[in-house]
Design brief:
The chain has seven helices and six strands, in the order αβαβαββαααββα. The chain is an alpha/beta fold. A hairpin with a 2-residue loop joins strand 3 and strand 4.
Length: about 190
């Protein structure tokens, strides 16, 4: 190494390999997806729908947009989920979207801020908590769309983990980290796809 950096880029390649060591985006990475990746994922989900246990671990991005919400509803309605994990924000903003058409006060379709929309998530928490549970809130408030609604409608269990900075939190959010880990383990120990 005293003469610089030694690069042995073909140490594990066969004698006939011609791949350029400095080629841009020629290999596999998180930043480069290929159609075959999606084809393989679809085939895996088709198989695990009937033969496995599919667990979705979601953040709020899965419900901040009408297209993403519709996609998650489709996944749940068609049996491609056996459990869903999220946090207080996933549950709260999904139910906010069902009740007000917003997430964090922004319109789900246009992304425009609604006047006083920043109160919508707090109103959602209060409405659900007043009902006594998410399930009771969905029924009593006649919620008919969204990720959490689809979980309830299709009897897909959801585990919502709380944190110290949560608003509310929403009823049914588990804010004891040991308890939420135990609830998640019930599904991860069966999981074939996460």
């Amino acid at each position: 190494g005293t003469g610089g950096i030694y690069l042995h880029h073909s140490g594990f390649r066969g004698a006939n390999s011609q791949l350029d060591a400095f080629a841009f985006r020629s290999g596999r990475s998180r930043e480069t997806s290929f159609d075959t990746d999606y084809d393989q994922l679809v085939e895996l989900l088709k198989h695990d729908k009937d033969n496995g246990h599919i667990v979705w671990v979601l953040g709020p991005a899965a419900i901040f947009n009408i297209g993403a919400r519709n996609a998650m509803e489709y996944i749940l309605d068609n049996g491609y989920a056996h459990a869903v994990f999220g946090g207080n924000a996933v549950g709260t903003h999904d139910l906010e979207g069902a009740l007000f058409g917003t997430a964090l006060g922004q319109d789900l379709r246009t992304r425009e801020n609604r006047h006083n929309g920043h109160y919508n998530h707090l109103d959602t928490i209060n409405m659900i908590n007043k009902a006594g549970s998410i399930r009771a809130g969905i029924s009593g408030l006649e919620i008919d769309n969204g990720l959490i609604y689809s979980c309830v409608k299709n009897d897909v269990p959801f585990v919502l983990a709380g944190s110290i900075r949560d608003d509310g939190p929403l009823h049914d959010v588990i804010d004891d980290m040991s308890a939420v880990q135990d609830a998640m383990r019930e599904h991860t120990k069966q999981a074939t796809t996460i």
